[in-house]
Specification:
Layout lengths: L7 H12 L1 H9 L2 H10 L5 H10 L16
Helix pairs in contact: 1-4, 2-3
Amino acid sequence: MNPHAINRLDRALAKICLSCPVCRHARKTQAGLAFRLVKNAENGLCPFCRAYERVYGRKPHEPPANAAADAP
């Protein structure tokens, strides 16, 4: 795990990623333009995707481990 401690800002940014229509579509369909966009842009461009990975321990384009846990 990242030595960076998860704080309130990380949780707030991750919550935005949960409600992002592009990220939600990528997690749901696992294919298409939205999936490729999120997969390629998550680490370098999007602070919300980076926070999502720190908080939930998985990439923003990966399907949810528990569907109830990712409900906005």
